[in-house]
Structures are given as C-alpha cells and as structure tokens.
Amino acid sequence: MQLINTTPPVIRLNDADNVGVATRALPQGLPLDGDSERVARHNIDAGHKVALTAIATGDSIIKYGQVIGRASRDIAVGEHVHTHNVAMLERDTTLTDFQPFPRSPTQDTDRTFMGYHRPNGQVGTRNYIGILSTVNCSATVAKVAAEQLNANPEIEALGFDGVVPITHGSGCAMNTESEGFAFLERVIAGYARHPNFALVVIIGLGCETNQVKQLVESAGLSDERRLAYFNIQQVGGTRASIGKAYEQVLGMARAHGRDERRPASLKHLSVALQCGGSDGYSGITANPALGHAADLIVRHGGSAILSETPEIYGAEHLLLDRAVDVEVARKLLARIAWWKHYTEINGAELNNNPSPGNKAGGLSTILEKSLGAVAKGGASSLNDVLEYAEPLKVPGFNFMDSPGYDPASVTGQIASGATLVCFTTGRGSVSGFKPAPCLKLATNTAMYETMHEDMDINCGAIIDGEMSVEAMGEAIFEKILAVASGEASASESLGYGSNEFVPWMVGAIT
Chain centroid to CA 194: how far? Predict the structure, then answer.
C-alpha cells in the first residue's frame, strides 16, 4: 500500500493527451501534479479521467495519444471527464494509403512447454475427454454420462484430466443456410478436433436440424480411434444412451492408453487474448502487458488470437496498420461493415458498448475501450482475419470475428484452435473455459486483493510502480508456459469451465 500512496495521483499516458488517469480515488481539491492551481474539481474515482488542460466544446478528448471522443461541453482543468461531458466521435476507416506491414519474424528457440502430442501432429495443453451434444435435447445425456465417468477413478488412473460435457441450448429450429447454423457447426467441429481433447463422443437426438452424421462427415471427423457418435432415438432413450456413452468412453479410454506430457515447441501453442469487466486501468496495465506476452509467443513461433469485433471498433486503424497484405486488411474492414449493418437492423449501435460496469470503472466511449482492448494484441504483424470459429491457418497474430460477449467470443477462439486463454479483467471475472485452461490477469491491485483466489497475476503492480509493462509481459509469458505445461490456473482450481460453452447465435429460430 505504501507504494500505491507514493505513485502520482494522476498519470498522463502520452505527451499528446489532454486527460490523465487517476491512480487512486482523488478527493476534491487534491493537487494533480504538485501545482496548487491544478486541483481536482470533484471527487474522482480511481481509474477515471481528469482534464489536464481546458477543453472546449467540440474539441477532441485525447488518451493514449488517440482521440477517444469529443467534449460535449466546455471542460475545465481538474474536471472529471466521463460520459456526462464526452460524446462519441464517428469516423470511417479506408485503405486509401494502405501499406503492407512486414510479417513479424520468428526466432530459433529452445523454449518449450510440456504438452500432449496427438497422432495428427497437434499438441494439447490438457488431456480431457469430451462428450459433445449437437442439440439441447442431448444435453442431459451428455452431462449425466460425464458426471458418472468423472466419478470413476479409472478415468484419472488412465491419465485423463476428466470428462467434459459440451452442451448448449440450440441445434434445432434453425435455417441450415443461415450464418448462425454455420457458426454452430464450426464451433462443434472445432471442439471435436481440439488437441486438448484426447477422445470425443458426439451425441444427437436424431430428428434435430443439426444432424450429427452430417456434421461429422462435413467436418472430416473420420478418426474412429478418437471419435464416436450416436443418436438417442436410435439407441433407445435416455437411460440407454447414458449407458452407451459411459461404456463407449470407457472402452475408448482403455484402448487409447496413458498419455504422458512431452516437450513441444511453441509453434504448437495458440493463446486466446480476451478481456471482460474492463476498467480505466485495463488499457494501461493488463492489456498492454498481455500484448507484450503475445508478442513473445509469436516471436517464439506460436500464435495469438485477438477477438471481440465490437471492442476494436474505433481502433481498427491500429490493426489495419499491421496487416501483412491488403486482403487481410479488407477482411477486417468487411467484418466491421457486417457489424455496423447487424447492429443497425437490430435497432442498436456499436457504441452501446461499453457496459455499465465498464463505465463505472472509468471507460466513457467504445473508442476508449477499443484502444485499450487492442493493446492485448501487442505489436506483431496481423497475419490473418478469421470468421467466427474458423480454424487457425496462418501462425502468428490473428484476429477472429466475434461478439464482445466473453463466453461466445472465447468459445469461438477455442474452436479456432486456442489451447490456452488469457483473460484480463478490472472489475473481476470468475469464468473458465474447458477444455482450455484460463489465466486471469487483474488490472488493479484493489480488485486483485479482493478476488485473489480467482486471479492468477496482479498487473496492478504496473500502476503501483513495482513493475514495467515489459517486465509484467515477461512474467505473463512464463506463466503461460507453466500453465500450458500442466500447472493449474485459478479457474481450474475452483472447478470452473463446464458451463461457458456458448456458441454465437445469429438468425431466426423457427
């Protein structure tokens, strides 16, 4: 706490900024920088913005050296700068002056993690067995079968981390030509082939839209040694299906034998970059530190996947500037255009984000939130843009289209091939994402201390003056390798991860 008290009450993140960020709660009248003429005009919460210069109505509000909005009225030095005096600034991004960004190089490295090597060349960070439901009607069978198998000590004795039921509330009454149906098929197929699952059983009802046999055939899921499937209606009902799933999994597990962790190069590691419950510190501490860690992953030959398209809106130019070619840039702009249309036809707008919790934490506009969110992506070249749950094809830094809703976004990232999740949070998050382990990175010390059992790393040490962004990024990188090698994350130790499979549902249900 002593280090926090000696930290300047307000920090300016860029020399061009006309607002600063409160490092702690500021009482009215507190000098901002030792000058008695520059004082807080109100009580200002930690993480919120304060005017460092006078800002006239219509002038740009600048943070991170970037415009985050415009002043909706005159703002005096020392005033609280937030939603009551900041308006959204719309802007269009074009490729008129586009220049390709050099592809980030990788280096020869002896850094490895201890992973599970699969026959197809993939490497997992965990060794689960998955029971996947194609439709909500088979969810109960999947859950009960998994529960019974997890109670059998033979599963652990054979070296498996457990049996995970992957269930959802959809799969029927859908237009098979719709985007929503394509998303669901891609998600289930992505989980079925995921390297963190050693074995998979897929269960359907039999009459649903999302037919299990069609799914298996269209996705090329043909390895009978690790994958089986059936329909409840053909087996004879619920009890018979639970029994079949139980025996099928147990038989496959015995035939599979015991897997052991072995060294694997980082080219086999793919990390999902995610944030939730963001606050005014997110773009200052955890997000840029995670970005530095992501750059280290890429430099060592691995991959990182940034997501949440509504939360890069307004900062997409920073990603476009890093696109390796114009086709990648066009794919990103196409996803932004899709979201503008999607929100418009649903009577909304992209600036509906930030959420009330984000605003309580100090974020005023989607531009401000997006600038902080993009920091998770580091500075590596943008090598590809994926549609939701599309398999990762190009190693390195990728962007995957998704909603800003964390469970749906992470579900897509895992389906794309992410074998570990890094989740930054300022307000606090308690989710996990089996079969991928999830690291929680706290943006501020106060929340970390309050929710320390749910957090893995306190990035608040940056604002406390204890560590630099780069040093914290290196610490995150080392933690990623430790967890990828089997160390339990906080979420795993608390049992989270079986309820966060949330495919993105788009389109009419009939």
Answer: 17
